[in-house]
C-alpha cells in the first residue's frame, strides 16, 4: 500500500484510477471509460470486464471507447464508427450486438471480429543477424537479478502480465544504458551488473506516444521534414524569383511571409480573466497563417496555405513528380496516416497518430542497419486495421537490417514477433523472473506462462482457419 505512484506500471495505474470510481458502489451513474484495457495483459482483461459487468448489473450504464477484442465481445451493444479515419470517417457504420456487427459487410471492425479479415502469422521467423545485446543481473524494482539476451536483426517482443517488470527491464535498464553509451544520455540506468554487445548498434531510438510538438506551430509537415523541400520548391517558382523570395518567405515561423497579426499561428488567443482562454481564427489572414504577398505565389493554382490544408493523400498526388517531397509523404501514407492534413497542429494528433508520424520519419531516413528501435505498447489506441498498418512498418524497419524491440500485450503483434522474452509469472513481488524466451511457437508450449496460454489460442485459431480456407 505504501508504494509510490511513479513505480506503478501503466496497467496498474489505470486500474487504480478505475477502482477509485468503481469502488464507490453508486447506482444510476453513467460511466464513460476511454480505453480501460490500456496496459493490460489479456490475463487481466477478464477481471476488468467482470468489474464493468458488475457495475452494469448494479443499475449503471457503462460506455467504453475500445479496440480490444475481448471487451467488444463482452459488450451488450456496439456502435462502430468509420468507415475510415479523419475525413473518411465520422459516420455510424454498424450498431447492435456483436453478432449484428460481425454480420455487417460494411464494418471493418466486424470483418476482424468475424475472421473475414485477420492479421496473418508470418510464413517464417527471421533468425536474426547472429549478434545480441545481453543484460546480466537486472534487479531494479521487482526484477529478480535476471540475465536476458536480446537478439538483434529481428522483431523482438517483451511480454508478461501488467506489472511483471517489462518497462523496468527495457526502459529503466536497457534504454538508459544504451542511450548513455551511444547518445551521451544523462539518465542513470536501473540497477544491474553489466550490458554487453553495445558495440553492435550505433543508434537507439525510443518511439513513444508523446506529442510530436507541444505548440500548434509543430505539424506533420515540419516534423517529417517534408515542409523544407516544399518551401524550396515555392522559392523556385517564376513569381517568387521575380520578387526575390527565398524559402524563408514561405515559413510561418519567421517574419517576412507570415501574417504578423497572429505571428503565423492562424488564430489569436484571447485571455478570459476567470474562464479558460479562447482561441479564435485571425481576422486578418482568416486562419491561413500567411500575408497576401506570400499567398500570391502559387503552384498550379495552389498557394502555400492551400498546400498545408491538403491531406497527405491529396498532397502525394500533387507533388508526385518531386521525389524529395514524395518520399516523405509516401512513408506517412504507408503508416496509415493518409487522412491527416500536412499543416494539422501537433496538439490535435492522438497518441497513436503522433507515434506513427515518428515512425514514418524514421522510415524515411537512410537506414544504417545498426539501429535499435524501442516501442512501449505501440498498439495503444489503434484499431485492428491500424495494427496491420503498424506491423507492415515495423517489418519494413527490420527488413532494412535494423532491430525492433516491443513491449506488447496485443496478441496480433506478439504472434508476428520473431523472438519473445516473457517475464512473470505474476505482477509485483510475484513477477520479475524470466519465464521463457524463443519463437511464439516455443512460448505457446510453456505451461506456466499466461502469455503462452493466450498465444496458443491465437496461433491455434490461425491454423484452424487456414484449414477451413
Structural summary, described in words:
- This protein has 469 residues and is of the alpha/beta class.
- Helices cover 36% and strands 16% of the residues.
- It contains 18 helices and 15 strands.
- The strands form five sheets. A six-stranded mixed beta sheet has the order 9-12-13-7-14-15, with helices on both faces.
- α13 crosses α14 (351-364).
- The termini are far apart.
- 40% of the residues are buried.
- It is found in: Cytoplasm.
- InterPro entries: ABC_transporter-like_ATP-bd, ABC_transporter-like_CS, P-loop_NTPase, UvrA.
In short:
36% of the residues lie in helices and 16% in strands.
Features:
single chain, 469 residues, alpha/beta, three-stranded antiparallel β-sheet, 18 helices, 15 strands
What is the β-strand count?
15
* Overall mean confidence score, pLDDT: 90
User: What's the gyration radius in Å?
Assistant: 25 Å
Q: What's the assembly state of these chains?
A: single chain
For the largest beta-sheet, the strand count, sense and barrel status come to: 6 strands, mixed
Distance between the termini: 52 Å
Structural class, by secondary structure, is alpha/beta
Strand order of the largest sheet: 9-12-13-7-14-15
User: Helical element count?
Assistant: 18
The helix fraction, in percent, is 25-40%
Query: Shape from CA axes?
Result: globular
Residues in β-strands, percent: 15-25%
User: Stretches where pLDDT falls below 50 for ≥5 residues?
Assistant: 461-469
Domain ABC transporter: 128-450
Main location: cytoplasm
InterPro entries: ABC_transporter-like_ATP-bd, ABC_transporter-like_CS, P-loop_NTPase, UvrA
Organism: Geodia barretti (Barrett's horny sponge)
Amino acid at each position: 500500500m505504501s508504494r509510490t505512484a511513479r513505480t506503478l506500471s501503466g496497467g496498474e495505474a489505470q486500474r487504480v484510477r478505475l477502482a477509485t470510481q468503481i469502488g464507490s458502489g453508486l447506482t444510476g451513474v453513467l460511466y464513460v471509460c476511454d480505453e480501460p484495457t490500456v496496459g493490460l495483459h489479456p490475463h487481466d482483461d477478464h477481471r476488468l470486464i467482470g468489474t464493468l459487468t458488475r457495475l452494469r448489473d448494479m443499475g449503471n450504464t457503462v460506455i467504453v471507447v475500445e479496440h480490444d477484442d475481448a471487451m467488444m465481445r463482452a459488450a451488450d451493444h456496439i456502435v462502430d464508427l468509420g468507415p475510415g479515419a479523419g475525413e473518411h470517417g465520422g459516420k455510424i457504420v454498424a450498431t447492435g450486438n456483436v453478432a449484428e456487427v460481425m454480420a455487417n459487410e460494411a464494418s471493418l471492425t466486424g470483418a476482424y471480429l468475424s475472421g473475414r479479415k485477420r492479421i496473418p502469422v508470418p510464413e517464417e521467423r527471421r533468425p536474426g543477424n547472429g549478434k545480441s545485446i545481453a543484460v546480466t543481473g537486472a534487479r531494479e524494482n521487482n526484477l529478480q537479478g535476471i540475465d536476458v539476451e536480446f537478439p538483434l536483426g529481428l522483431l523482438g517482443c517483451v511480454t508478461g502480465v501488467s506489472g511483471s517488470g517489462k518497462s523496468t527491464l527495457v526502459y529503466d535498464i536497457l534504454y538508459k544504458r544504451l542511450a548513455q553509451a551511444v547518445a551521451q544520455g544523462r539518465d542513470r540506468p536501473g540497477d544491474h551488473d553489466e550490458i554487453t554487445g553495445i558495440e553492435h548498434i550505433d543508434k537507439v531510438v525510443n518511439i513513444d506516444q508523446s506529442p510530436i510538438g507541444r505548440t500548434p506551430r509543430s505539424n506533420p509537415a515540419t516534423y517529417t521534414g517534408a515542409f523544407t523541400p516544399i518551401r524550396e520548391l515555392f522559392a523556385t517558382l517564376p513569381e517568387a524569383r521575380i520578387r526575390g523570395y527565398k524559402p524563408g518567405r514561405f515559413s510561418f515561423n519567421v517574419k517576412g511571409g507570415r501574417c504578423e497579426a497572429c505571428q503565423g499561428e492562424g488564430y489569436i488567443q484571447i485571455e478570459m480573466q476567470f474562464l479558460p482562454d479562447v482561441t479564435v481564427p485571425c481576422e486578418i489572414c482568416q486562419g491561413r497563417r500567411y500575408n497576401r504577398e506570400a499567398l500570391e505565389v502559387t503552384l498550379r493554382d495552389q498557394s502555400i496555405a492551400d498546400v498545408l490544408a491538403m491531406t497527405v493523400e491529396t498532397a502525394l498526388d500533387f507533388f508526385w513528380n518531386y521525389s524529395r517531397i514524395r518520399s516523405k509523404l509516401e512513408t506517412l501514407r504507408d503508416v496509415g496516416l493518409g487522412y491527416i492534413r500536412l499543416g494539422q497542429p501537433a496538439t490535435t494528433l492522438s497518441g497513436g497518430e503522433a507515434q506513427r508520424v515518428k515512425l514514418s520519419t524514421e522510415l524515411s531516413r537512410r537506414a544504417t542497419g545498426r539501429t535499435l528501435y524501442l516501442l512501449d505498447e505501440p498498439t495503444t489506441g489503434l484499431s485492428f486495421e491500424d495494427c496491420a498498418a503498424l506491423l507492415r512498418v515495423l517489418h519494413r524497419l527490420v527488413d532494412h537490417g535494423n532491430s525492433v524491440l516491443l513491449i506488447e500485450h496485443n496478441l496480433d503483434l506478439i504472434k508476428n514477433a520473431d523472438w519473445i522474452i516473457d517475464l512473470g509469472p505474476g505482477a509485483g513481488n510475484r513477477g520479475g523472473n524470466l519465464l521463457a524466451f524463443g519463437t511464439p511457437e516455443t512460448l505457446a508450449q510453456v505451461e506456466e506462462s499466461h502469455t503462452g496460454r493466450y498465444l496458443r489460442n491465437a496461433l491455434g485459431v490461425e491454423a484452424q482457419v487456414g484449414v477451413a480456407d
